[in-house]
Amino acid sequence: MKAYIFPGQGSQFVGMGKDLYDNHELAKELFEKANSLLGFRITDVMFNGTEEELKQTNVTQPAIFLHAVIKALLEGDAFKPDMVAGHSLGEFSALVANKTLSFEDGLKLVYQRALAMQKACEAVPGTMAAVLGLDDAKVEEICSGITNEVVVAANYNCPGQLVISGSVAGIHQACELLKAAGAKRALVLPVGGAFHSPLMEPARVELEAAIHATAFNSPICPIYQNVAASAVISVEAIKDNLIAQLTAPVRWTQSVQAMVADGASVFLECGPGKVLQGLVSKIHKEAQVASV
Q1: Is the pTM for the entire model greater than 0.90?
Q2: What is the predicted pLDDT for the residue at 273?
Q3: Could you list the active site residues?
Q4: Hey, what domains does the chain have and what are their CATH numbers?
Q5: CB neighbour class for 48 (10 Å; exposed up to 12, middle 13-18, buried from 19)
Q6: Distances (CA, A) of 96 to 68, 71, 101, 111
């Protein structure tokens, strides 16, 4: 069975999507539609901007979404997923790919999400850190022991690789404790905020209103959502999980394990880079991985 997987923030690079724009009429049409819907030429930043411009949340998130969704749509009749999943932001791409959201509504929600997250980051500064070489349970224990600051497990990327999120002081405190506990690395990441933590609550509230105002359709195949880490086909459950995702952890390891248990043997990554292929290979060594 085939699982199509969609990356999140961090996969961007200058020039992404230009080959699609130049060589496929459908891609050009969708990119130009996006320029119109967003009110600025995101293609100019994607194709010819600077790395700093592309790192801005209000650009990064729709840029990755566009690249991933357009790659999937260019598959045409060959796009026959048995299941889909997306890492954080990638969940919106996956929901367009499996027909739950229209291209236009998916892009609008991603842009609203990006703006809401940016506001939350500016209101309460936060950060994230990658923790390598320590059991998930030990990382969770250490995070829960820090009671004077916000620190939580945020991204379960693969065994031995977990990202934590929270206040700046809390993350630095946690990193010292994690290294003392035997972590190979506990490295603060160059991100703009404490994503997938309680500090994103204002963004969650804002996105909830936008999601409830958007039309959702019955999916053509199950989506394995970050919050549930299991197959979801109920439209109401999809909405609830999408809303909860902003303050809840990305259970990528558990999602891939659930897809494998349900029959997935081939994982095809839609979007820039090969980050998810690497993670899948670490989670399930027998999986076949490739880019679309």
Answers
A1: yes
A2: 86
A3: 88, 196
A4: 2-122+198-291 (3.40.366.10), 125-188 (3.30.70.250)
A5: exposed
A6: 10, 12, 5, 14
